[in-house]
Amino acid sequence: MAIVLDAFASYVADMLKQVVEDEVGMLLGVTGQIDKMGVKLGDLKKFLADAERRRITDTSVQGWVTELKRAMYDATDILDICQLKAMDHHAASRMGCCNPLLFCLRNPLFAHEIGTRIRALNQKLDAIKERSAAFGFDLASYEDSCSKVHSSRLSTSRETSWELDRSGVVGEKIEEDTRALVEIMVRRTEAETSNADNNRVMVFAIVGVGGIGKTTLAREVFNDEAINANFDKRIWLSVNQDFDKVELLRTAITLAGGKHRSEKALAVLRPILSDALTGKKIFLVMDDVWSHEAWGDVLETPLNAVARGSRVLVTTRDTRVARGVKAVLPYHHIDKLDDEDAWSLLRKQVISSETDGPEVDMLKDIGLQIAVKCGGLPLAVKVMGGLLCQKDKQRHEWNMVLNDSIWSASEMPEELNYSIYFSYEDLPPSIKQCFLYYSLLPKSAAWSKNGSIGMWISEGFLHGTSADLEELGSKYYKELILRNLIEPVTIWSDQQVCSMHDVVRSFAQFVARDEALAAHSGDTGFISKLSAHKFLRLSMEKNVSESDGLDWSSLHAQKTLRTLILVGPISMKPSDSIVDFPCLRTLHAESIDVAVLVESLGKLKHLRYLLIQKSNISSLPDNIGNMKFLQFIGLVECQQFVKVPHSILKLGQLRYLNFYDSSVNSIPRGFCVLTNLRNLRGFPAQTDGVWCSLDELGPLSELRSLGVQRLENVSVTSSAAKAKLGEKVHLTHLFLYCSSILGDDGLIKDEKGVSEEEQRQIAGVFDELCPSPSLEYLDINGFFGRRLPRWMTSRSAAVFKSLRIILMYDLACCTQLPDGLCQLPCLQEIDTRRAPAIKRVGPEFLQPHLATAAFPRLQKMCLVDMVEWEEWEWEEQVQAMPLLEVLELENCRLRCLPPGLASHARALKSISAQNNQHLNSLENFASVVELEVAKSPDLERITNLPNLRKLEIETCPKLKVLEGICALQRLVLEDYAMETLPEYMRDVNPRHFELRCSLTLLTSIAAGQSGPEWDRFSHIDHVKAYAPDENNTRKWYVLYTREPCSLITNVSHSTSAGKSAQPCHLNVLFHSVHLTRLVDSGYVEEDQEVVS
């Protein structure tokens, strides 16, 4: 965690350099004092690496570091004010006053005040430096200190073994993952079968954050019987972060059956390993790999001698390691445990003998909450289990753990903290503070990539030229994703929104504890923490439904705040003001009545980032132009916000401006002066005589992301041409919106529809908004032309070689999809929704005459709410979509999927088909692993899906044939009108079956062997069946296990007759040894209440 302080020192140094270059010291008469400040900070910088590293265990060093940081923050405040005065001077110069001496004479009190503050700061820095002598800091450079081995207490070595501990294995998911990986390992590829591939070894990778269960899954695979039977030799290597190449080779030689004879030269050891493995078909696990060098520099060459069909399985936290060892795509990413599996794992850890079981089950309601707090991280669950083992199995003891400070990282056991610490310490110095800052962002809101980067820039975390800060921020953001420290939220495309694992978040908040506080209004001791300590960054979230209020007055003491993030309501008085926080750089206010604060906003001299979301704000202060440092402004989902003040044109440093989903309908003329803008969203298209707001976009050549709305207001195509989108060579993201004319049913709202002239007009406007070839992401929404823009056709689209994602929503009058998309070399995702005029997707979509396969890189395609679409033509001989993995079809009139899709989309893994009223069959998809079908009343057949592992069926009453799904592991069936289980249940044999049905059917199932449904489910290993009651969809349940045979339920015949139910145990004689259990505390499933 060292270099966070060092990185901040670099930021202060950059500010000093800028002040010197601008001759601000001379301007204010304090040149000597500013020079001294620079020298003193330079001297102190020598101690920073060692000081930051030691503060984790030494509270006295922690105090010294905190004091130094505060002094540095004071320095940035002073330098900010100096720069503001310099800006005023330059403005005065343009008006004829350019003499620095005159400037000082006109501002003698200010010059004296600044001089006094700088001298006081220099004295403080002297005192801090004197105190440093007592600590004996290591003065080595950061590079030297980084190369040293950490102390044994923080050793990054973690030896793992292939030996399997079943106490750490729970849940259906790990069974499914193990089977899938084993199948991949033992399967011969086409290239291996035909000897077309000279590569004898294939490498696969398991990727995930520390503690997620990578090693456990690798052990399961390693110990599988099929692995043992299919390979001549199995080898397990624990690699670790600080591996030694010689020792790694020696270990591999020993495990391969060779003798290394204590050789130390790699050139000698490699042939020894090669000889030991020659001709053998091996299975090698490389666990906990931090660098691809462990493969490329050590093991890859010796393994060239092995037999064809050999496999290597790598586990790593870093996606780039998987890429570096040339692992086969896609990598296997481990999902977090669901709540029930987390509880099962916790229960395993706590039970020490068979007699403990009933006692622990009585505590399930508390244990489940503890398991949920572990955030699905197996390591965290195990650590908590170890802690609970030391406690009595009493409700008050477990409640103490649930509510204890253990959930802050400062109290977490070392095993868990160090697991995360290793990932943190391995981060490049410049990214550590970005990671820590991300942990401040409240979990309840979706935080965009651009918003996060904007905050980093505002806090000075990104060091580079002004032109490339967003690119640098994107690089850091991607780095955190690759290291699995933040995780993309899958419902958002292009990794634009990420989340942070709760345990990782707790660790990061602990590291930043002296500067930052992130809390929920209901957290114990929150107000007392605010009273006892002055923070630099504060993040506060509160649910709208919570009765306990938070008063603005409780924040008043936090005068030194640089970041304030508020999500949820806060009580304010008319007299409240934002000037209580004069040092603020970043302000994010969401779902808050900020109207009373608007007038005082202009007094925040240091503010760089202002984002207000879901608020009643109607305007910004007229003097916002005086906030010279403002770089980011967002008024998002603020329906009452209408007018942009003219003074915004004075903000020459503005980089980001977002009015998305607000009511802004005009912008001030002269907007084109904001040439520093990188991101502009919610820009309104408007006309006023011969002037059009799109004219103002022409000079904005630095734009990376542009969103224009209300394009239906543009009546002259030449106005669109003046936007000069084709000349914006940095533009990667483009959002072109018209106001939608479609209703909730997906059809045009106005009976009169849209005239042909209006259709031609809007098509002409879009034709002129042709972007540059740099485009990567395109979002068209509300377009009502008959055809999409010409630059999306086959004649023009080929120039967009970087385009990866296309979204097309609310295409009211468009009659066909564009024919130019199929030739885009990098296109990965197409998402089309609400296109009621498209009835047919013909051969033009695939361009069958192309020499290469159409859509060569497409991975995901969504075709949703195309309510009149009834024909998809794709002949079997037309090659297309070889990499397509995900297909979503919803609310269309298709009867079947085209034969070409089944023949050529051989990478297709997931199909979701919902609300397709006429779909009658799904057949012959050899590669599909997951299938979801819902509300398809005509669906009759699902056949020949030999690799299907997970099948979800919802309300498909005509489905009669379910065949050719021999690999099925999990079946979910939902139909509350169903009176009996379908006949096809006799012919399928998933390991897990989940049923959501009526109470009547559940009662029949609860009868067990004596009931009418027994023959349809008794052959399945695990069955969970549920029926709803009012708001609880899992009120009633039946839980069945085949071996050892047990059936547990809280349903009786009296229940279905409307009487209240108690858990009952069924006295039914089963064929095998019968096990019955009376669950006194009931069966708790997610949010279900305990049945007592």
From TrEMBL:
Q: Where is the Disease resistance N-terminal domain?
A: 10-91
Q: Where is the NB-ARC domain?
A: 198-354
Instruction: Output the SUPFAM superfamilies linked to this UniProt entry.
Output: L domain-like, P-loop containing nucleoside triphosphate hydrolases
Query: What Pfam families does the entry give?
Result: LRR_14, NB-ARC, Rx_N, WHD_DRP
| Keyword terms of this UniProt record | ATP-binding, Coiled coil, Leucine-rich repeat, Nucleotide-binding, Plant defense, Repeat
Q: Which residues form the Disease resistance R13L4/SHOC-2-like LRR domain?
A: 575-890
Tell me the InterPro entries matching this sequence. Apaf_helical, Leu-rich_rpt_typical-subtyp, LRR_dom_sf, LRR_R13L4/SHOC2-like, NB-ARC, P-loop_NTPase, RX-like_CC, Rx_N
The protein's matches in PANTHER family, at most eight in alphabetical order, are given as: AAA+ ATPASE DOMAIN-CONTAINING PROTEIN, PLANT BROAD-SPECTRUM MILDEW RESISTANCE PROTEIN RPW8
Protein known as: Disease resistance protein RGA3
* Gene source species: Aegilops tauschii subsp. strangulata
